[in-house]
Amino acid sequence: MKPQTLRLDDLKEFLPKGIKNVFFSDADYSMFTETFLTQSGFKGFKKWLKFCGIESVGQKNYWKRNYDCDNLANAFKTYMNLLHARANPLSFTESFKTGKANETTAQGVAIGVIYFEIKGKKTSSHHAINMAITRGLRNELVPIFIEPNAAGKIKLTKQERESIWYANF
Questions:
Q1: Which bin fits 18, alpha (ψ -120 to 50), beta or left (φ > 0)?
Q2: Looking at 25-39, 96-110, 142-156, which range is the least confident one?
Q3: Mean pLDDT across the stretch 1-8?
Q4: Given this model, what pLDDT does residue 71 score?
Q5: What is the pLDDT of residues 117-146, one digit of tens each?
Q6: Contacts for 99 with CB less than 8 Å, ≥ 6 apart
Q7: Which of 86, 95, 122, 165 reaches 20 to 30 Å from 18, CA-CA?
């Protein structure tokens, strides 16, 4: 099955309105399936971390003082972009000269790093995770949230979704 491509304008629809810090590096994005992102892709990510010397360390899993939520979220995004690049190895020039084509012409993957606020009774903090756009059960586009600190797919509350203040795709 050929990867599905998401245009930048379509991706923008999934972010809460009014976010001032939104960055897009590509014009179109290839989407992974939710199953891949949350199962074999996530297992591959954990293996990749281990290969890089980032081992699981108990309750906090991969979290370290010098390698925390933003580092993990950026690493997951990078890992998925590496898989996309490996699956589409031909450069523009190689495609043009040989007449061969990659699986997709999408420039990036529909996975971003987002920051949101977690409010407690007396305090609040900020947290970085991944947001991916994929196809839902009824083939509609849906956002999913991934906690790269070994938890996989998570749900954000309405308040947390509305508190997103930074996104980078």
A1: left
A2: 96-110
A3: 77
A4: 92
A5: 988 778 788 999 999 999 887 888 999 999
A6: none
A7: 122
**Parallel, antiparallel or unpaired: strands 152-154 and 141-147:** antiparallel
Look-up: residue for tokens 């906090």? 60
Please report, as a single letter, which amino acid is at residue 12: K
> What φ, ψ does residue 141 adopt, rounded to 5°?
-70, 130
Kindly write down the DSSP assignment for every residue of 124-161, as one continuous string. EEEEEEEEEEEE-TTS-EEEEEEETTTTEEE---HHHH
Residue 65 DSSP label: T
Measured CA to CA, the distance from residue 3 to residue 76 in angstroms comes to 19
The residue ranges of DSSP E strands in the chain, in sequence order, are 4-7, 21-23, 28-31, 108-109, 111-119, 124-135, 141-147, 152-154, 166-168
Handedness of CA 14, 72, 152, 89 (dihedral sign): positive
Token pair in block for residue 62 = 């991969």
| Coil vs helix vs strand at 101 | coil
